[in-house]
Amino acid sequence: MHQPIQWQHWGEQAFKLAAEQNKPVLLDIGAVWCHWCHVMDRESYESPETAEIINQHFIPVKVDRDERPEVDARYQTAVAAISGQGGWPLTVFLTPDGKPFYGGTYFPPDDRYGRPGFRKILLAIAEAFRERRADVEREAGNLMHALSHAEGLLGRSAEFSPKIVEQMVQSGLSLYDRENGGFGTAPKFPHPAALDLLIDWYARTGEERVGSMVTNTLEKMARGGMYDQIAGGFHRYSVDERWCVPHFEKMSYDNSELLKNYVHGWQATGNQFFAHVAMDIMRWIDTWLSDREQGGFYASQDADISLDDDGDHFTWTREEAREVLSPEEFEVAAMHWDIGEHGEMHHNPAKNVLWVSMPVEEIASRMGRERAEVEALIESARAKMEKAREHRPIPYLDKTLYTNWNALCVTAYLQAARALGTQPQWATRMRDSQAFALKSLERLWRSAWNEEGGLSHVIDYPHEHASEERLPGLLDDYAYAALALLEAYETTSDISYFERARYVAKQMLARFYDTTGDGFFDVQPGTSAIGAVSANRKPFQDAPTPAGNSAAAIALLKLHALTNNNEYYERAKETLEVFAGAAEQFGIYSGTYGIASVWLAKGHTQVVVVGSGPGADALYGTAVRPFALNKIALRVTPEQFHLLPPALAEMVPNLPNIAESARAVVCSNFTCQPPVSDPEELKRVMHAALR
């Protein structure tokens, strides 16, 4: 707002202005958490000289990629076709009707880094638009053609094969970094959907090499600098292969999906460390990304305070650590988190990223202390450093509440509450987490849904943006919301959540399903005719949130499991077949497709526990303890039994009549085993069904 550039909102008015003045559009797509966006803002968009060129020759449009992901996705594809890569800031030059003809990412103000200076680019583009308009229009046409082919994944449909699950597991094994965990080399991203697929494979098959890959990856990530060792929560990704030096922004969607990984990792392995990491992620979200009063999850936390620092809020010099710790605490903390004279940060070599470089056992051995003493010193050091860090300038929190990301957080919290809440030591805390997730889901439903417009993409803006227009919901909003509502039903057995999920799915099919080519569009057809946004797109690759088509298929297959309505199954199967020809090629980068494939290939397993009291508690604890992607566990009293979804009520109609004591029944693909009352017998029946 303070920049000298005459920025316009994305919309018809900006492009009408471009047509009237016969000027190209300069489209700048960035994000509040994006460091290089801030750099380009300061270097170029706050420069009066640059602003004069832009205002004279262009219609400038600024877009927040979190607010308009459908705009960002299409122009990212266009710029990747031009330069071979995308990213933020995304700088794109458009014809007055919105078609891209040139673009890149970050441009320095003057020639440097092997990149031409931005002012030089601006003048050259303006001249080309005036003098060589035919060439510009031809290039725009070529890019639109490439965009429509890339985004539609044309010609990639095939018959669905259950083998795709094993092929994706093999993809993970081939990319696995045995030394450091994770997949590939630097920069290294966590790929949560792929991790869930691999955890499920290990839980189902017991294949040790997959179990080792999962365990090593989860441990290395949580002990690295990509994890905030002081306050909890994960930064966005690691710039090195050892998970040591992160990009310091923190996103709600990264932490929601990684929360699920650590809960599922605990379920599959029993490793208590994974459960503690999961609760530490929730501690950070509760503190920094939650509206505790009204419910809801904020979007993100920025990496930096200013352009002159790089993660300074999160990093420590030895002197900074020594100032807030006792000598004993400092000695232990310096060994545990590698707080040395020379750290990892290039802009300030004295700054250390904290990562677990020495385990507790080794510190105890070196110091001649008991393990419990060392653990107590580490915890007291962590608490003091967290308190001291809160007195530093705090990176900006984007308090926008997005429907899709809130739904992801609700789902993760409810899964954590169900799984961890059966353990007595965590039960109270998980009840609170469950209550907050349901409160947040109610806010989503109350504020983002209306009968006429369906879902909106934004639940609520921070106060300073309160006048923004209502943005229509995207496929992600509908698919993730349906999954969150089904998760709420599974957690509470409140049938109203199930009915809402079914209604959201009905609207999702009506608004986004391609009735001629199958699969789902990310944007409701006909809602925009501006440039690249008019190109049909069916999201398939996780980027990094779960791909919309795969998430929609999972929601439909879950509904099919609860209703035996064949339309849900057929639409899900058709959706997966649209991408079946490309799935193996994408491997772990389409991990959510792999999760949907488990539902389609393996079918579904439901466990219904009927009863109350300690016997039902024990059965329900057994039902929720093991992890399987395609398992649904419900608990009802005999009086609630008539509220079960149709398929379950039809499969086990006599269960309430024989439930003098608590009973559980396991059903797979609409066929049920006899009721059991012993938790060990339930464990055996479930094990056979899930494997």
Please write out the topology:
Blueprint: H1 12-21, E1 25-30, H2 35-45, H3 48-57, E2 59-64, H4 69-83, E3 90-94, E4 100-104, H5 118-131, H6 133-152, H7 163-175, H8 192-205, H9 208-223, E5 237-238, E6 246-247, E7 250-251, H10 252-269, H11 272-288, E8 300-301, H12 318-324, H13 327-337, H14 360-367, H15 371-389, E9 397-398, E10 401-402, H16 403-420, H17 427-448, E11 449-450, E12 454-455, E13 458-460, H18 475-492, H19 495-512, H20 548-563, H21 566-578, H22 580-586, H23 591-602, E14 605-610, H24 614-624, E15 631-636, H25 646-651, H26 655-658, E16 663-668, E17 671-672, H27 679-690
Parallel strand pairs: 1-2, 14-15
Antiparallel strand pairs: 1-3, 3-4, 5-6, 7-8, 8-9, 10-13, 11-12, 14-16, 16-17
How does this model look, in words?
- By secondary structure, the chain is an alpha+beta fold.
- The protein folds into 4 domains: 12-152, Glutaredoxin (3-Layer(aba) Sandwich); 163-306 and 397-602, Glycosyltransferase, CATH 1.50.10; 318-389, Arc Repressor Mutant, subunit A, CATH 1.10.10; 605-690, Glutaredoxin (3-Layer(aba) Sandwich).
- 52% of the residues lie in helices and 9% in strands.
- The chain is built from 27 helices and 17 strands.
- A 4-stranded mixed sheet has the order 2-1-3-4, sandwiched between helices.
- Strand 3 (90-94) and strand 4 form a beta hairpin.
- The model has no long low-confidence stretch (mean pLDDT 94).
- Radius of gyration using CA atoms only: 26 Å
Distance from first to last alpha carbon: 57 Å
The number of domains? 4
Low-pLDDT regions:
none
Biggest beta sheet attributes: 4 strands, mixed
Number of E-state strands: 17
